[in-house]
Amino acid sequence: MSTYAQKKGFGATIWDYMTTVDHKKIAILYLIAGGIFFILGGLEAMFIRIQLAVPDNNFVSAGLYNEILTMHGTTMIFLAAMPLLFAFMNAIMPLQIGARDVAFPFLNSLGFWLFFFGGLFLNLSWFLGGAPDAGWTSYASLSLDSAGHGIDFYALGLQISGAGTLIGGINFLVTIINMRAPGMTYMRMPLFTWSTFVASALILFAFPPLTIGLFFMIFDRMFGSNFFDPAMGGNTVLWEHLFWIFGHPEVYILILPAFGIFSEIFATFSRKRLFGYSSMVFATVLIGFLGFMVWAHHMFTTGMGPIANAIFAVATMAIAVPTGIKIFNWLFTMWGGSIKFTTPMLWAVAFIPSFVAGGVTGVMLATAAADYQYHDSYFVVAHFHYVIVGGVVFALLAGTHFYWPKMFGTMLNEFLGKITFWLFLIGFHLTFFIQHFLGLMGMPRRIFTFLPDQGLETGNLISTVGAVLMAVAVIVLLINIVITSVKNERVGNDPWEDGRTLEWSIPSPPPFYNFKQLPLVRGLDAYWLEKVEGKKGMTPAEPLGDIHMPNNSILPVVMSLGLFIAAFGAMYRTEHAWGLPVLIGGMLITLLAMFARSVKDDHGFHIHKEDLENDDDKGGKA
Amino acid sequence: MQAEEKFTYETWPASPEKATLEAKNKFLGFWLFLGGETVLFASLFATYLALKDKVPNAEQALAKDLFELPLVFVMTMLLLTSSLTSVYAMYHMKNYDFKKMQLWLGITVLLGLSFLGFEIYEFNHYVHEFHHTFSSSAFGSAFYTLVGFHGAHVALGLLWITTLMVRNAKRGLSLYNAPKFYLASLYWHFIDVVWVFIFTVVYLMGMVG
Prior knowledge:
The structure holds 2 protein chains of 2 kinds.
Chain A: H1 10-19, H2 23-51, H3 62-96, H4 105-124, H5 140-143, H6 150-178, H7 191-222, H8 237-270, H9 277-290, H10 306-318, H11 320-334, H12 343-366, H13 368-374, H14 378-408, H15 414-440, H16 457-487, H17 526-532, E1 547-549, H18 555-572, H19 579-599, E2 605-607, H20 609-613
Helix pairs in contact in A: 2-3, 2-4, 2-16, 3-4, 3-6, 3-8, 3-14, 4-6, 4-18, 6-7, 6-18, 7-8, 7-9, 8-11, 8-12, 8-14, 9-11, 12-14, 12-15, 14-15, 15-16, 18-19
Chain B: H1 21-51, H2 63-66, H3 69-94, H4 98-130, H5 138-167, H6 178-208
Helix pairs in contact in B: 1-5, 1-6, 3-4, 3-6, 4-5, 5-6
Subcellular location (chain B): Cell membrane
Transmembrane segments (chain B): 28-51, 71-91, 103-121, 141-166, 186-206
GO biological process, one term (chain B): aerobic electron transport chain
């Protein structure tokens, strides 16, 4: 069964990745797919900024502009940011808790393929009659009147990929609760694991409302129901509630793992224990909890009344408290540390002022009375790009440099990394800082062009120049990845030399069973503790023995493909005779694959002790 | 403990649904999944309450015109009893009595099937007697989606339990399939609990207001 150590052809490698249940390979799949969608979303952003560079521009038409801005937001949130975070969660979290894999390797693969086929389906809209054009929030009053199939692609595509995310969330929760190595208590878990844990809990409770909202949208547009149609007794605000009950926790699903990545980086490169570890854990959990109490601050202007607005305003401002705790803890982690300004550390240091700026405008927006002025203006655009780019994207880029050696066994070039950093940082602030003022001067968001002589020209041009810098920065990163992969200089267990947590105690990349013997965890920063005592690696917690591993399977691809096919059937059901059979056929494919999974026993296989003993170059000491 | 190991009544563990690491993972993962399902149904209930009796014109039937408690009472009793029989099945599973477990699961499936039959009759009745359909009003959409989602869960649960019964008919209990039986029965209880809420929120509250 074990096919490692064999040279494989290209086709065999593709097949291997399609059937893999190894969390490290699935992480690479998430990284590649998320990276491609990130570039797609970035291209869409560039089209937006080119169109808005000068007044009265006709680079794209108004209708196409709506499609581009909708797809930019949808792609970046659902298909780029979340999958890229899932890439790091998959690659690093099981290693950080000393596990050999996630709790449900098969479901891990299913989660990826659902996300992938959902994202593919959504993006096929460009070639099949037009993309969705009602904004990433897809408010029902706009989306029900949208002609063509764009919104159908949105609702069906997100439904499929959302199922994948939910499965991933449950998987990470069970992994963290059940699979920790001996001695890895909850309060010894690295912060990235903690934030993965809380973000997964948010996924578990936030995605079902989106699922329901999307079902209503699908039913209303394709199956004749009337949830959002006021003429038939429906209510269009219903969508807004369901969407934001999901949508607000969603921003914490994005930012908490980003906080986790930065917490690891601050501690590693300040070469100090993370300041206020337990208060960091507390703040993470509190943010996760409060994240469910604030959804209606997106809806201050819908007319909920002063009492509801006041409650949601206060709840929103309360989140500034645990976030502030985190900011101070990061600052105090650096205080007195012997800091190394590596590329990941540069991102981390730049993250603090950038994210705080976004947090401050967040409190401004939370003031319900003032929000009536800011609402739907570029001020809001500036705010959420400051928190999502300045928080999440910075963390993704930092994480890419930080974890690249662990995932691929070779270091990204530090010089090119720093060029990426400076270009992106300058470009980012150039693009979005000025947008606060454009918004305050009255420029509405989602507008496809503006008139000359209204004082908006300079600001928009500066914004576009900044966007070009960010694009160049991403190109430098891609060049860096190519150069690094071609050179392929292998590195050891702990390439940053200051690794604190378990993932740095095993080879880069780790063998497919991760730990030859499960490590014994004796405290927070388990690997650092051993290093301080002069040991080379972890103390094993078990004798060398057989390791049980799961079998590969193609069924996740088949299940996801079935839903992908069924989605086409659902969409074309009313206009083509083949729609209904395709819908039923696709569902049957998925159901039969689930049936096959259920009735066919899958006991996995064992790596034998003797093979492990002969496998000395892999697995390290522990 | 190995999943493939053969057992006798004496050696069978007290909690076979949690005896191996795979089983522990499944057990916890399924509880979490049910947590997500709870939010799913909560969203459907909230929508139903928001759209209850929201119809475009006065000719359309409202909740108080539609429902008849005797029929719903029979359905409720069928489903509640099926939950009880699935508990009996799990009792025998824990005692390593495969035949009795299969018998009680079989009764559970029959009760579930008759519940579904009544539900189909009920929907048919509303459509033909009251012209209360999925598309006739927001009330109709919300009603059929909430109750229909529950019905679809019942159907899937029946398919699941039947598949397990047929697949394992000839090979008895092991630590590999015991957790599967246990989770299917957990799912069945969840469906039952959701019905209790549907009975209260949709039918009882529909009759009084």
